[in-house]
Amino acid sequence: MQFQIQEEGEFRWVEQGEGEIIFLLHGLFGALSNFADTINYFSQRYKVVIPLLPLYRLEIERTSVTGMVNHVDEFIKMKGYKKLNLIGNSLGGHIGLLYTLRCQENVNSLTLTASSGLFESSLGDNYPRKSDYEYIKRKTAETFYNPALASKELVDEIFDIVNTREKALRTVLIAKSAVRHNLRDELSKITIPCNLIWGANDTITPPFVGEEFKKLLKNSDLTIIDHCCHAPMMEVPAQFNDCMQRFLNKIYQIQ
After folding, report:
1. Looking at the chain, which terminus has fewer C-beta neighbours within 10 angstroms, N or C?
2. Separation CA 21–CA 24 (nearest Å)
């Protein structure tokens, strides 16, 4: 399904459906397609919004995890969104955590799936043989339990990123800023309901990271899904959506 991208100023986003807001945040190598099943499923009963993070469009000095949070904050204010149900994958989870710490009064709930913010084995500075297409293909496949999910379109996109100087530089800047911005000492400030969804086979943010988030986020539940790696919403969309639906039903007291 093709999604209509809206634009205003420096902001680009997709918005579908009506109702309470589900706000999606993609990762460092993420795209709209990563959340396609989530958008299609939840837009039937919620307003689903996904901003396209300006990973390669901001000035160098603004290209950091904090720069992404500032962009998201400005976008939310511009649109006037209230009481968001945030869902963040990988770097998107990290951005969601930082936004929540900044504006917790505007966040209804937070879902993290394979989130950075505590530990990650790599987020972008791990492609020493970047001109070797087969190597990039293999590294991309390692982020999925089923390597067939590393489509040619996805591999081509990552190959372009790591082989385009400006994109590669920004990727490294954001990845390094995320590693520096560890949130261990701040997570106790988050008191809203948190939903943690992790792949049992995740090698980038392994399951112990989800367990650690559960210890530090006092109002949280953790679901670990077998045969799943770093992108549960792509790899096991039915299970991911079911877990999200049960969480939202509990929040909104839907029987």
Report:
1. C
2. 10
Domains of the chain: 6-123+182-251 (3.40.50.1820)
pTM for this predicted structure: 0.94
Q: Which two tokens stand for residue 113?
A: 């799936």
pLDDT-derived band at 119 (thresholds 50, 70, 90) equals confident
- Residue 131's pLDDT band (boundaries 50, 70, 90)? confident
CA distance 69 to 91: 11
Residue 50: alpha-carbon gap to chain centroid: 10
Structure tokens at 44: 């039937």
Whether 98 and 65 have beta carbons less than 8 Å apart is answered as yes
Quote the tokens at residue 54.
Answer: 């300006």
Q: Give the whole-angstrom CA distance, residue 239 versus residue 220.
A: 18
Strands, DSSP E only, in 55-125? 84-89, 107-113
The one-letter amino acid code at 255 reads Q
